[in-house]
Design goal:
By secondary structure, this protein is mainly α. The protein is built from 9 helices and 4 strands. The strands form 2 sheets. A two-stranded antiparallel ribbon has the order 1-4. Keywords: Membrane, Transmembrane, Transmembrane helix.
């Protein structure tokens, strides 16, 4: 079992965020993106993205695009709703596809199912608000999505005993309280909170179960020599 320490509520002995291992020490594992950009003798960027990183990066970028478009674009709400519904469905399918089999075998498939369900629920409520003209929903799209994501992070933090995710959940709930102070920039503010949270989780190794990156390599290398 990869997650066999049941004595701790959270992994207090592990850093919240840390540097990923050196790319040179990362074994060849199916599904992992390896990036090494070099100009002459100068390394411009050297990193990797596990399947979990890819999921976080996917939703982080999508959130930034969706809410930045809502903030600045003159495109109608109904047109945007159609576009983003299709994008969200593709994102949900991609999330399911990217989830490694060992993660479900360890009993954590509910984490992915929870997030997919929350994203689809948020999309459904948003679409109903836009197409049915529900003023209460339209006036609270930013709190809705910050709240949905905050719930997702909180549930995931508790299930995976991650202080990092718990802090991100708290950030989302705090952002809801801060929305009145950003006034006309609520969509941009919401997009930055949602998007940067995903990007940060993709770029760094975080505390959950000893580092999801390390565990994925260990599990995958056993089945993909």
């Amino acid at each position: 079992m990869l997650f066999n320490n049941k004595t701790q509520i959270f992994y207090s002995n592990l850093p919240l965020l840390g540097q990923k291992p050196s790319l040179q020490g990362v074994p060849e594992v199916a599904g992992v993106w390896r990036i090494h950009w070099q100009l002459g003798e100068t390394t411009l960027r050297s990193t990797f993205y596990t399947q979990f990183d890819q999921i976080c990066l996917l939703w982080g970028i999508l959130s930034l695009i969706i809410f930045t478009t809502a903030q600045f674009s003159p495109i109608s709400w109904t047109t945007q709703a159609v576009w983003w519904t299709m994008v969200s469905l593709v994102g949900a399918i991609a999330t399911h596809y990217l989830t490694p089999a060992w993660f479900r075998k360890e009993g954590f498939g509910w984490v992915i199912d929870l997030w997919v369900g929350l994203m689809l629920l948020g999309t459904l409520i948003s679409d109903l608000g836009i197409f049915a003209g529900w003023g209460l929903v339209l006036m609270n799209l930013c709190p809705l999505w910050l709240g949905i994501s905050g719930i997702g992070y909180f549930q995931t933090a508790w299930g995976m005993r991650s202080r990092t995710l718990l802090l991100i959940a708290g950030l989302h709930f705090a952002a809801i309280a801060a929305l009145p102070w950003v006034m006309d920039w609520q969509f941009l503010f919401t997009g930055l909170i949602l998007g940067l949270s995903g990007v940060i989780l993709a770029e760094f190794q975080w505390d959950a179960f000893g580092g999801p990156c390390v565990n994925q390599f260990k599990a995958s290398s056993k089945t993909h020599p």
